[in-house]
Amino acid sequence: MKEVKVEVIGPEPACVRCQTAKKVVEKAAEKLKQIGLNIKVEKVNIISKEIIGRYGVLVSPAIAIDGVVKVMGRVPSEEEIGKLIKDAAEKGV
Amino acid sequence: MNAGLIKKTRVALLLLFVFVVIGLLIYSRIMAYSLAPTLEPADFSKYAWYEIPFYYLWDYISHAWICLLFAFTAAGLVYEFIPKEVITKYMGSGKVTGYAIGAGLAPFFTVCSCTMVPLFAGILYTGAGIGPAITFLLMAPAANILTILITGEFLSWEIAVVRIVVSLVTAVLAGIIISRTSWGKAIEKEHQISRGTSTAQQKIEIVKPPLDERLISTLKFGGFLAKQILPYFIIGLIVVGYVTAYIPETIVESYLTGVAGVLLASVIGGPLYTPTLVEIVLGRSLLQLGMSRAALLSWLMGQPYDIPNMMAVSRIVRWKVVLNYAFIAWVCSVSFGLLYGLTMGSL
Q1: Which residue of chain A comes nearest to B208, CA vs CA?
Q2: Alpha-helical runs (H) found in B33-115
Q3: Are B199 and B127 in contact (CB under 8 A)?
Q4: Residue B165 pLDDT > 60, yes or no?
Q5: Strand pairing report for A38-45 and A3-10
Q6: Number of structural domains, chain B?
Q7: Domain range spanning residue B86?
Q8: A92 part of contact set with chain B, CB < 8 Å
Q9: Which of A51, B52, B130, B158 has its CA 20 to 30 A from that of B246?
Q10: Rounded to a whole number, what is the distance in Å from the CA of B66 to chain A's nearest CA?
Q11: Domain that holds residue A38
């Protein structure tokens, strides 16, 4: 099974909304892991050359799935992000 | 009931709420109902010390709730519906676009202060460079939608417009000056990362949720902002209530008018600045107590040297940059204060 990499992109230390975004992503990932998906959630720093070099100027909180920014500047619902992760997993099979 | 119908009902209810809020504002305008508080400093003399916070808070909340509700809803709406990928797409493309977006669009992205420093770093790193980054940093707090709406309603729309214009000039000027200096260029070079803009665009595919979810997150974000700001706002109001009641008019009139008044206001406006709208309330009280309009403008322009922000920025660029942009901003705040006072005849 292919691993889906989910990056929650926000400043360090994380702002309130980035923390919320991370919690939502983790909850969604937990549920999907139970149905057998392989998901890795990571919090990355928005103020780093590596991230800005990869994605450009971002509005925090942003969420990237498998290296593609899908959500920017808002906290998605658990169902929405779950569906996005699931789509990415199915695409990779 | 099927899912489609539930969705439509939700959209309808949420839109209704938004229109009611807008309607309330228009209605209060037509009925000439003051959305700003109505107590005068002199009214306070009849209250005991422990009564002052209650009367002051009541005066504010009873009048200002429509305005605050509208401001937070509007901030949520703008933030949710502005296409955020625009900034990613164009920020790397060059100096002039950089300045234009930094000054004109950026304020709409940054109702929440925690997005400001990351954006500053992003702009600095991706090619638009240090000038637009500083323009953005100075412009964002001065012209965000909450501040403008509250300044317009509580103080006057004239001062709100003047505030936007002078902040714009200050922000662009500071950006251009610093980007021309040798140390400014050195920092820009040190931070710049070379990359093709085309590769970045392939990596961004923003997913747009359906309208009902967007409206819900609009209100959620408005609520989030209110939760962040209102506690400080209320504490601020209590303090300002006492200031209004106990500071004699003679002191304000003698120290916060004339050229010296502008200077003093520009100096105390900075350290006292908190991104919680309190500066507007305090400015209003001081104006009632006799501060000149010129000093009020300098006072309101204090936010560029907002200290927590300076600390955060200094971790990315050196203190030299921070102190210089603060100095330029201060010079501008004094000059524009004096200029405004001279033209309006209120120095």
Answers
A1: A71
A2: 52-81, 85-91, 95-100, 106-109
A3: no
A4: yes
A5: parallel
A6: 1
A7: 5-247
A8: no
A9: B158
A10: 26
A11: 3-92
